[in-house]
Amino acid sequence: MACTKFEYVKKFESFQSLLPNCYIVIRIDGHSFHRFTSIHNFKKPNDRRALDLANLAAMKVMEEFQDIRIAYGQSDEYSFVFDKNCKIYKRRESKLVSLITSLFTANYVFNWSKYFSAVELQYLPSFDSRAVIYPSLENLRDYMSWRCADCHINNLYNTIFWCLVQDESSPKTVSEAQDILKDTDSGMKNEMLFSKFGINYNNIEEIYKKGTVLYRKNELLTKSDSNISRVKSVIKMDHVDIINDKFWKENPEIFK
Ligand code: ATP
Ligand code: ATP
Ligand code: MG
Ligand code: MG
Ligand code: MG
Ligand code: MG
């Protein structure tokens, strides 16, 4: 780079590097998606097309950034988890936050028409994002559990809420529905869903109740015409409980 008298201004830049030996989580979240989903007529409570689109965008991010070991998405958010020892961009926070967010956003827009073929984008979506570091696997798992529990709680609430609002025989206003649900616990919501709307919450699709987890897994590939097999790392997508130990016991190579 040419050396000029102006170059001293570079010294004003800050270099915030994320603590070593800690898991790095970058969480992005749709900006004002309450508005975005309403203007684009998303089906409520869950528009499957939007989840599929976000999952594809997240998959593209993981393909590009090999240091991401696992990602978790629900609603308008996605969390990307980097290996604790990764050295990417010297762990510079602004690089990671900005690159992940712009790559995800670009893929979300680029692939929009694959899922929303009949829906023209009225304006471009944007996503905010932050980096958080966790020093232990226990902390990281609690973080993932927190997002997964949030998915479940919001989905149960939104399912009954939209049943009340979209009830053909006696539709409720938004504030009436909020009022009805104000002091209900999850047992009461389940019961109301079943008795009033004939919906067994257990039978709702797992992707809505659990969210989506993308993770790296080693698979043994054997060519059909030979005995030679090799291990290949692939990205798997599941909609399973990530709070309990089962998922982590079955996938020890995520953080090997
Ligand atoms: P980094 O990720 O570190 O920024 P980089 O390859 O983007 O890597 P830059 O220093 O930002 O490195 O350089 C931008 C590159 O893009 C240069 O090679 C520059 O010549 C090229 N480039 C940028 N704009 C144009 C343009 N309008 N036409 C042709 N080439 C361009
Ligand atoms: P902020 O900019 O503060 O994040 P927001 O309006 O995006 O504001 P969130 O708490 O992120 O607020 O909520 C996301 C909104 O998008 C909720 O209203 C949620 O119901 C809606 N939403 C997200 N994904 C879907 C989906 N797949 N189908 C229907 N609605 C969705
Ligand atoms: Mg937000
Ligand atoms: Mg949002
Ligand atoms: Mg959100
Ligand atoms: Mg550049």
Overview features:
globular, 9 helices, 256 residues, binds magnesium ion, Alpha-Beta Plaits
How are the strands of the largest sheet arranged? 4-1-3-2-5-6
Task: State the fourth-level CATH superfamily of the domain at 16-150 and 205-210.
Answer: tRNA(His) guanylyltransferase (Thg1)
- The percentage helix is 40-55%
Beta-strand content = 15-25%
Mass-distribution shape: globular
Total beta-strand segments: 6
Name every ligand kind in the structure.
adenosine-5'-triphosphate, magnesium ion
Our count of helices gives 9
| Mean pLDDT metric | 96
Q: What's the CATH class of the domain at 16-150 and 205-210, please?
A: Alpha Beta
The secondary-structure element order is EHHEEHHEHHHHEEH
Separation of the first and last Cα atoms: 41 Å
At the fold tier of CATH, the topology name of the domain at 16-150 and 205-210 is Alpha-Beta Plaits
Q: What is the structural class?
A: alpha+beta
Which residue ranges are poorly predicted, with pLDDT under 50 across at least 5 consecutive positions?
A: none
How would you portray this structure in words?
- With 256 residues, this protein is α+β, with helices and mostly antiparallel strands.
- It has a domain at 16-150 and 205-210: Alpha-Beta Plaits.
- The protein has helices spanning 33-39, 48-64, 93-110, 112-115, 137-165, 174-181, 186-197, 206-210, 245-250, and strands at residues 23-30, 68-74, 77-82, 127-134, 212-222, 229-238.
- The chain has a six-stranded antiparallel beta sheet with strand order 4-1-3-2-5-6, with helices on both faces.
- The mean pLDDT is 96.
- The chain binds adenosine-5'-triphosphate (ATP) (2 copies) and magnesium ion (4 copies).
